[in-house]
Amino acid sequence: MTHVLLVGNGAREHAIAEAIARSEQAPRLFAFMKTDNPGIAALAAEVRIGRYDDPAPIIAFAKEAKVAFAVIGPEDPLSHGIVDALAAAGIPAVGPTQTLARLESSKSFTRNLLEKYGIPGNPRFRNFTDLEGIEAFLNELPGIVLKPDGLTGGKGVMVQGDHFQTRAEALDLCREILRSHPSVTVEEKLEGEEFSLQCLCDGRTVKATPPVQDHKRRFAGDRGPNTGGMGSYSGADHLLPFLDADAVAQGLAITEKVAAALLAETGQPYKGVLYGGFMITATGVKLIEYNARFGDPEAMNILPLLKTDFIALCRAIIDGTLDQLALTFEKKATVCKYCVPKGYGLPADHPDAASTSSRIEIGDVQGARLYYSSIDRKADGLYMTASRAMGVVGIADSLAEAERIAEGAIKAIGGPVDHRSDIGTEPLIQKRIDHMKRLKG
Ligand code: AMP
Ligand code: GLY
């Protein structure tokens, strides 16, 4: 029997745990978590609670449990070198080494890699370690995006029009960023529709999973602050209503070149998930960023559809035999919506902020899947914490039906909760289609 270690405690890892549990190889799951996720705990033979920034307790648990390999869910342990520490202990992993995880943790590393290896997809950009030349470059760009270097959880990026308006403000912000970060990437603001393409890589072969669209803004109509992601959808044809097969192929081609460039640059094969955050623009597919892991919520869209045995998939990634494995997904549409505390993403002095530690009741969710995220199980029930509480996923033949299932389920969750009722609905999807039509003229 295969013993597998899973590191991570969110809804993404709950979906991974479920994919592991579904394997025909009847694996035993050992879960190392920062907080006790009741959904993962229910699937695990044993659970250990600890921190992600110290590999030692994770290695000790992996050894005790005699795991054959590990699957790393979030970026935190990856950027702290958990895969290197596991390798030193003789335990292979699905997840990149610390050096390779810079693809996510350092925006400048990734932009420079694409440029050095002549890979298409970069917007105009420059990295600055001091203010020298910043003003002149800001003046060259029609629209500006500022990215502090280092892991910012997707919340450190500043976009003109959203976070600041003028070039003078951009310059002030650069000055501020450089006080607390080693460098800032200044880049051209792209216009288009974003999509997530989560690819699997064994170091040489890259295979794509169906594209997904996430919704980062807190409120309906794409208003309010950026969040970790309020929900996401994927199409039954493994495309998106505004995205054709050619655009998906462009995203995959960029990712294949990136995998080859990483090998050439570091001498290390990238084993794990290469999740490209792309934007389809009037002039083709551009790269916004790479993540070194599955997306959260996007993992909840694609893992439930995975027909290939997940343990076989992990082994192919580790052994470098992904070219010999057929990666297949059910031809179904999915809509994922996050149930969050009303106060999620709002300032601490907001009247709804206290909702973050309230109890929730889960009613009849009918055919929907539930994935726990920031949820505590106490003696008298389930309590939310400060972050996204649970992902609800509808799976059906059409997006409309998947949306209906997800919306019905999320409305069955009682408590001071909120969600985005517009995700996956026809009007919002039509808005995306119209946006792309307008841009392409
Ligand atoms: P990131 O942390 O790189 O995903 O950035 C967060 C968000 O900022 C992305 O999801 C985009 O919506 C936006 N963004 C980042 N880079 C650009 C860009 N070059 N042009 C337009 N929007 C961007
Ligand atoms: N859905 C955004 C992320 O996982 O980074």
Explain this structure.
The chain is of the alpha+beta class and 441 residues long. The protein has four domains: 3-94, Rossmann fold (3-Layer(aba) Sandwich), CATH 3.40.50.20; 124-188, Dna Ligase, domain 1; 191-324, D-amino Acid Aminotransferase, Chain A, domain 1; 333-425, Glycinamide Ribonucleotide Synthetase, Chain A, domain 4 (Alpha-Beta Complex), CATH 3.90.600. Helix content is 32%, strand content 27%. It is built from 14 helices and 25 strands. The protein has helices at residues 11-21, 38-43, 55-64, 75-79, 82-88, 102-105, 107-116, 134-140, 167-180, 245-266, 298-302, 310-319, 399-411, 426-440; strands at residues 3-7, 28-33, 46-49, 69-72, 93-94, 125-128, 144-148, 158-159, 184-188, 193-202, 206-208, 213-214, 217-219, 223-226, 231-234, 271-281, 284-291, 333-341, 359-362, 369-372, 375-378, 381-384, 390-396, 413-414, 417-418. Strands 12, 15, 18, 20, 23 and 25 form a six-stranded antiparallel β-sheet that branches. Strands 3-2-1-4-5 form a five-stranded parallel β-sheet, with helices on both faces. Helix 8 packs across helix 9 (167-180). The termini are far apart. The structure holds adenosine monophosphate and glycine. Adenosine monophosphate binds at residues 123, 145, 154, 157, 159, 187, 189-190, 194, 216, 277, 288-289.
